[in-house]
Design goal:
The complex is a heterodimer of chains A (about 110) and B (about 110). Chain A has about 110 residues and is mainly beta. Chain A has no helices and eleven strands. In chain A, the strands form three sheets. In chain A, strands 2, 5, 6, 9, 10 and 11 form a six-stranded mixed β-sheet that branches. In chain A, strands 3-8-7 form a three-stranded antiparallel β-sheet, with no helix packed on it. Chain B is globular and about 35 Å long. The chains are: A mainly beta (about 110), B mainly beta (about 110). Chains A and B meet through strand 6 and strand 10 of A and strand 4, strand 5, strand 9 and strand 10 of B.
């Protein structure tokens, strides 16, 4: 069975500081990894996915299969980045659209 | 275009009752998934439907069931409600099932069991 672990429940940084939200997964196959974000009073939405290898709102995430990690990074945090961030995994194959989520990390960016 | 719509937004039910939640996916999306969100367990997958067929099911008791209609709208039903069923129930739709396909979430139905 697959599992996603986000070790930090809360993360606080100051504006302009680098930020890294950690995500580790356990799965023996080749999963697809995602980061979802939920801003205050908004619905959960996709931030980025590893297969697209793109940067969204300054965030990037690299899939490290050796360390089974998919950490989310941003070099200079902004106040508007304050939100709940979820790392999610899709195992592919007969998992179809099932997403396995981590517990989430609340990011607070202080002015 | 309109996003994923869930109704009702809030529900209060008594233990032992049953409840039906509704989800209207984005137009053209044929896959609908359901998740339960609680402070203790986080987001947990309930089930997924595609073209009126359940494709995947999470580790929940049989009291939790769902269905999908020909217009892709989906409902989930919880029978014999327990206090522990109090949660935010999220529905997500995607164009098709499978990894790599973006899931669009609704705002959820907040169920409180008293």
């Amino acid at each position: 069975a697959q599992r996603v672990t986000q070790p930090e429940k809360l993360l606080s940084v100051f504006k302009g500081a680098p930020v890294e939200l950690k995500c580790n997964y356990s799965y023996s196959g080749s999963p697809e990894l995602f980061w979802y974000v939920q801003y205050s009073r908004q619905r959960l939405q996709l931030l980025l996915r590893h297969i697209s290898r793109e940067s969204i709102k300054g965030f990037t995430a690299d899939l490290n299969k050796g360390e089974t990690s998919f950490h989310l990074k941003k070099p200079f945090a902004q106040e508007e980045d304050s939100a709940m961030y979820y790392c999610a995994l899709n195992a592919g194959g007969t998992s179809y659209g099932k997403l396995t989520f981590g517990q989430g990390t609340i990011l607070t960016v202080h002015p | 275009k309109a996003g994923v719509t869930q109704t009702p937004r809030y529900l209060i039910k008594t233990r032992g009752q049953q409840v039906t939640l509704s989800c209207s996916p984005i137009s053209g999306h044929r896959s609908v998934s359901w998740y339960q969100q609680t402070p203790g367990q986080g987001l947990q997958f309930l089930f997924e439907y595609f073209s009126e067929t359940q494709r995947n099911k999470g580790n929940f008791p049989g009291r939790f069931s769902g269905r999908q209609f020909s217009n892709s709208r989906s409902e989930m039903n919880v029978s014999t409600l327990e206090l522990g069923d109090s949660a935010l129930y999220l529905c997500a739709s995607s164009v098709q099932p499978g990894g790599g396909t973006e899931a669009f979430f609704g705002q959820g139905t907040r169920l409180t069991v008293v």
